[in-house]
Amino acid sequence: MAEPASLTLAARLDNLAAFSAAVVAAARLHGLEESRLGAIELALEEALVNIFSHAFPEGDGEVTVTCMADENSRFVIRIEDDGPPFDLLAREAPDVTASLDERTPGGLGIHLIRQVMDTVTYARQHGRNVLTLIP
After folding, report:
1. Domains in the chain, please, with CATH?
2. CA dihedral over 49, 14, 40, 82, signed as positive or negative
3. Residue 22 and residue 102: Cα distance in Å, rounded?
């Protein structure tokens, strides 16, 4: 993958399939193994649904997803939005060993993203949330 591939769409659930298709196509172009594509789609979906639901519940914002190779030729997915600051990595990991009655709601999607990606980073840059996923 020589040039970054980028897609900007409204922050709405009906755009989830378009984001997913673009990222999977870029991952294939980069040469990622087919066995990794499910994990990539899962992490992308969890991240985007969080953004759509929490940052833009009315669907009034935009999200940009960019796929590129980093300096080590790793496939990188960068998700940007201009919603309120939210560092999902600052959230404490849920206790997945606790019974359902003892668990605090939320956080499982974030936990899942951390589990299926090799690297997950968050930054607030130029008034935007920037979530970077490296499978």
Report:
1. 5-134 (3.30.565.10)
2. negative
3. 39
The side-by-side arrangement of strands in the sheet containing 128-134 is: 5-10, 62-69, 75-81, 128-134, 119-125
- On whether the CB atoms of residues 56 and 35 are closer than 8 A, the answer is no
pTM of the full structure: 0.85
The single residue listed with the structure tokens 């960068």 is 78
Residues facing 77 on adjacent strands:
67, 133
What's residue 97's pLDDT? 54
Profile the chain (135 residues) by mean pLDDT over runs of 10 residues. 86 96 96 94 95 89 96 95 84 53 56 90 96 97
